[in-house]
Amino acid sequence: MTIALIAHDSKKVDMVGFVRDHIDFFKEHNIKLIATGTTGTYLEKAGLEIEKMLSGPLGGDAQIASRMVEGKVDMIIFFRDPLGKHPHEVDVSMLMRLCDVHNIPLATNPAAGLRFVQSLEHEMKEQ
Q1: 61 catalytic residue (yes or no)
Q2: What is the rounded CA–CA span in Å between residue 114 and residue 110?
Q3: More reliable by pLDDT, 52 or 124
Q4: In the chain, how many domains are there?
């Protein structure tokens, strides 16, 4: 299973905390984590293994969307800043639209991300 991680600048610290809180789960179940470039750098500095794409404004959101439509991403956790302006909003909208088109789960805040992790934990315990 591959989970893509994306966070707007004001949410990057929240993303690092979220992943740290659940790192044992990700490691135990051999979940591959990929991220946009800057988010991935924050996660690496926190000691996590992550495959980095380009930074979001430079095409990282599009790279993740491309992998998703190829069936290489199973879930996206994207901590968005709904109050900020983002130069790559078109890419963000495209990513979210493609999640709907391809029926890929998308969590856009920590509460939804937590539900995703809890759901995966439950699902994997039943297997």
Answers
A1: yes
A2: 6
A3: 52
A4: 1
| 113/119 Cα distance (integer angstroms) | 10
Q: For the segment 96-105, what is each residue's pLDDT rounded down to a tens digit?
A: 999 999 999 9
Structure tokens at 85: 């302006």
41-47's contacts with Cβ under 8 Å and 24+ in sequence apart are: 42/7, 42/12, 42/13, 42/15, 42/16, 43/5, 43/15, 43/16, 43/19, 46/16, 46/19, 46/20
Answer whether 55's CB lies under 8 Å from 38's CB: yes
Is 37 annotated in a binding site? The answer is: yes
Per the confidence metrics, is the pTM higher than 0.85?
yes
Any idea what the CATH number is for the domain that residue 111 is in? Answer: 3.40.50.1380
Catalytic one of 61, 81, 91, 100 = 61
Helices (H), strands (E): how many in the chain?
5, 5
Residue 41, marked binder: no
Q: Classify residue 34 by its DSSP letter.
A: E
pLDDT at 56 over 70: yes
**17 lies in which domain range?**
2-126
